[in-house]
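Two folds, back to back.
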Amino acid sequence: MKMRNGISARAAKMLLGVAALAMLLGAVGAGLHGRGHGQGQTAAHGVVTPLASANLVFDGEPTCLKVARENGDPDIGASTFLLEAPSGCVVPAHYHTAEEQLMVVRGDVLTGMGGMAETTMGPGGFAMMPSKAMHWFTCKSKITCLMFVTFDRKYDIVWAQPAK
């Protein structure tokens, strides 16, 4: 591990990831404030959840993926989730009506989107999937992958039809 100005490359990468995550969450928060308080889009109070307190649970398909709702109400509007995927976990091709933003916190995530080449993202990696854009991902690292995802409106999911 190389040292640069007293900071290891790994530490610098981690700091970059944290800074990028803070910017993403700030942008999402700023976007929510512009939508009006009457739509249930913004909490009347702040939200602080230490990672150790995140309530990660299995929530349907795919069975390897754990989720924790961090903010918002996915049944009526914008929301933020923490996702945990063990090594080898595959989330098959699907899309959402909402725009999705994904940021990798830990691990290496191979992600793909219709019309684009697949890319492996490490900590701090970011992807934005427009409304109804087919996309997929796989945790490719030996360690469990941890990601944040945000949706800009009510959550839904449409799985790609398997080839016959």
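---
second:
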Amino acid sequence: MQIKKIDINLIDEIFLISFEQFQKESWTKQQFAECLNDSNYVCFGIFENDKLISYVLALESLDDVNILSIATKEKYKNKGFASALLEHLKKYSKLNNKTLSLEVKSKNHVAINLYTKLGFKIVSSRLNYYKDKDTAIIMFYM
């Protein structure tokens, strides 16, 4: 397992992992391209035998790294890859003297449990934030 920074050259693989995970709610390839071509975004991936199996994409601002998308190929789920990427981002944020934040659907209990286990705290919510009227839970690593 190796964690490396990802660039636009892996857009097809990122999109396929995202679509497999989120289907209709997946970002489009164009949305990923816009982020990967913008220096304000950072993307890391976990590779096994030079194949991308998990990624995390975040927006960097002056004082925060905001996680926008994280996904793992289905056959590699529940093996600690998302946790490893989150731990990597925690170190990256600390090294750059920034907070680490994210938002997650309130119905996504698996993700909320993972984030909580890794030290993220719920700080607020946005009612009816998503198209399906689900609430967005805002979390920060503290």
